[in-house]
Specification:
The complex is a heterodimer. Chain A has seven helices and three strands, in the order ααβαβαβααα. In chain A, strands 1-2-3 form a three-stranded parallel sheet, covered by helices on one side. The C terminus of chain A is likely disordered. Chain B is 34% helix and 12% strand. Chain B is built from five helices and five strands. Chain B has a five-stranded parallel sheet. In chain B, strand 3, helix 3 and strand 4 form a beta-alpha-beta unit. In chain B, helix 1 packs across helix 5 and helix 2 packs parallel to helix 3. Classes of the chains: A mainly alpha, B alpha/beta.
Chain lengths: 160, 170
């Protein structure tokens, strides 16, 4: 999660706990911190520490979400990681720009906890059904269907 | 602004398309599904070429469901083509395929796929997947509005983002 606002970090973490998701949520406070974390992960070749999903705020100090997206989509070894924007503005201009820069999807931050829980549920259920790009390289040339893994994940076992 | 209350399905198998239609229905999705059977037909649809020129009848989709194993032009090539079109670059493309390899997943994401789903052969599993897809894409996520824009030639920056053009991965 790339987010500078403490309130939003707490809300997402609480919402994930509420729905029983055991995903480890690692927080970077701005784009720079996220870049540093991902670079270190690649250098250490710890593919397992790559996120299966990046939740990205757009308005942040130093390096904002758009700049982070541009960096990520040109970074070998990381360019394929799924990014879901989670931000307070749903202005069409921002939505189109984020998708054009390579965001995988775009969510607008809810305004109360109940809605955060609902959003987390939908988000977690959907992205766990996706074949995990973060693990794909590690698992390499395996020509097996992903079905088994995907189903296991959609049943609520760990996906991070 | 274009009408986009439609999902474009690119799938060469009639059986698979029928199964998805049934899954959409069972999941209670009312949004229409337009079915094209090849990559080149998908491109003609998105370009609005020939019979597809009438955008009232053939609106640009809210998102594309793309099979990878298509005859002639495969799903990866369709993806590359979509991402090369300035006006279609933000369009969400969800890969929906029967078989996936680690390489295939990474490649699809690198080429600009928004999501990568593996289709089960079991109908109930497909329904479950379509339900999750609908909850996320139709009821939760904000999606872009795509359509023809006047694109000036010779521009070094992207007309939508104002940023330098993204590297072509073709």
């Amino acid at each position: 999660m790339v987010e500078d606002r403490e309130d939003d970090i707490v809300l997402i973490k609480r919402a994930f706990k509420e729905i029983g998701a055991r995903d480890v949520i690692r927080v970077a406070r701005d784009g720079h911190e996220a870049v540093a974390y991902l670079r270190a992960t690649v250098l250490s070749q710890e593919q397992k520490r790559l996120p299966y999903l990046i939740l990205l705020d757009l308005k942040m100090p130093r390096m904002d979400g758009f700049e982070f997206l541009e960096w990520l989509r040109h970074e070998p070894g990381l360019e394929h990681l799924p990014v879901v924007v989670l931000t307070s503005s749903g202005e069409l201009r921002d939505v189109n720009r984020a998708y054009a820069l390579g965001a995988n999807s775009f969510l607008v931050k809810p305004n109360d906890f109940e809605k955060y829980v609902e959003l987390s549920k939908v988000l977690a259920r959907y992205w766990r059904m996706n074949a995990p790009a973060s693990e794909a390289e590690r698992l390499g040339q395996k020509s097996e269907a992903w079905r088994g893994d995907v189903r296991q994940q959609s049943n609520g076992t760990k996906a991070a | 602004m274009e009408n986009r209350e439609l999902v474009l399905l690119v799938e060469d198998s009639d059986d698979d398309a029928l199964m998805l239609r049934r899954a959409f229905k069972k999941a209670g999705i009312v949004m229409p599904l337009a079915h094209v059977k090849s990559g080149s037909q998908a491109i003609r649809y998105l370009q609005g070429a020939g019979d597809y020129g009438n955008r009232t009848v053939h609106p640009l989709p809210k998102f594309v469901l793309l099979d990878l194993g298509l005859p002639e032009m495969d799903g990866y090539e369709v993806l590359v083509w979509i991402r090369e079109q300035a006006d279609l670059r933000p369009l969400p493309v969800i890969v929906l395929t029967g078989l996936a390899t680690g390489d295939g997943i990474v490649r699809a994401y690198q080429l600009g796929a928004n999501s990568f789903l593996v289709k089960s052969a079991e109908f109930e599993e497909v329904v479950k997947m379509i339900r999750a897809l609908s909850d996320f894409w139709l009821h939760t996520a904000a999606t872009p509005v795509v359509g023809k824009r006047k694109v000036q030639t010779g521009q070094k920056t992207d007309p939508i983002t104002g940023s330098p053009k993204r590297r072509s991965l073709a």
